[in-house]
Specification:
By secondary structure, this protein is of the alpha+beta class. It is built from seven helices and eight strands; from the N terminus they run αααβββββαβααβαβ. A hairpin with an 8-residue loop joins β3 and β4. α3 packs antiparallel against α6 and α5 crosses α6.
Length: 260
């Protein structure tokens, strides 16, 4: 394709074209795949991981041991989180700051977060929904990572809404909070084009892991949930078309198996 010669392409025009391109990209996942289903499809069982049967086997040494490694070993998603365990304001702050907050600076004074991020673009957003806390008002919030604050989007009891929009939550799950993770891949795509979308997915996994590890450290039960009504959640959060719903982590009960 050749560019028409008489159209001046200054940076505003380029920005506009660029935005138009990204707004018209197909959704990250087809709508049909996002429909909530009550059961998981059964596929023929496949090997859990790859093996090279004809290759020589080289045994690995015993692993090192430390408090951190022991926490890592304890990370598990709750299966039975029926015991009420309200979340405190310190715990919520710790979960957010140590999963995606600005917790340090480079020597040049640039803010950095607990996850690696392609080009330090940080394309994700975190939305805590607080259900059961003695010192944080119930409601839906946005985590402002730059300021380290919460922005209240709506106050109120969201427990019933969580029960209907999250496929696998039942009345017996003692949910204290949920953190919804979204991505504005444009922030990374400005530097990496379409790879920005891949990077947003990669970063979401790192944030999920941090949320679960910090929850383990604090003695809070956690479980990632993608079984949800995407449309209902997008609507409730009033997400624009260029902000994707990536995942969520539900906090309920105490750390499975207790802490060592
Ligand atoms: C992206 C993602 C989505 C998940 N979605 C759900 C879900 O919708 N419902 C659920 O009960 N568990 C969900 N899980 C939890 C997994 O079932 C769980 O991590 C897996 O069984 C391994 O167990 P572990 O986390 O205790 O090691 C999800 C996990 C991930 C990483």
């Amino acid at each position: 394709m050749t560019m028409p010669e008489n159209i001046p392409l200054d940076s505003d025009d380029l920005d506009y074209l660029y935005e138009l391109y990204h707004k018209n990209l197909a959704p990250l996942v087809a709508e049909s795949a996002l429909e909530p289903t009550a059961s998981t499809p059964h596929h023929a069982s496949e090997p859990v991981s790859k093996t090279y049967q004809r290759a020589e086997t080289v045994p690995l040494a015993e692993t090192a041991e430390s408090t951190f490694l022991s926490r890592l070993r304890q990370r598990a998603s709750y299966t039975d989180a029926t015991e009420r365990r309200p979340i405190t304001d310190t715990e919520l702050a710790t979960l957010l700051a140590y999963s995606y907050g600005e917790i340090r600076e480079t020597e040049g004074g640039e803010p950095r977060r607990p996850v690696a991020s392609g080009g330090a673009c940080y394309p994700l957003e975190l939305y805590p929904v607080v259900v059961d806390s003695l010192d944080v008002e119930a409601g839906m919030y946005h985590f402002n990572a730059q300021d380290g604050t919460l922005e209240r989007l709506a106050a109120g009891d969201y427990s019933e809404w969580l029960g209907t929009s999250w496929t696998w939550l039942t009345d017996t799950d003692a949910v204290s909070a949920v953190v919804v993770i979204t991505a504005a891949p444009e922030r990374a795509a400005a530097k990496y084009d379409e790879l920005g979308y891949l990077f947003a997915g990669i970063e979401t996994g790192a944030v999920i892991q941090n949320l679960q590890l910090v929850a383990t450290e604090l003695g809070i039960g956690s479980r990632p949930h993608n079984g949800l009504d995407y449309r209902a959640v997008r609507r409730k959060l009033r997400l624009r078309s260029d902000e994707y719903l990536m995942s969520s982590v539900v906090f309920a009960g105490s750390t499975p198996g207790g802490r060592e």
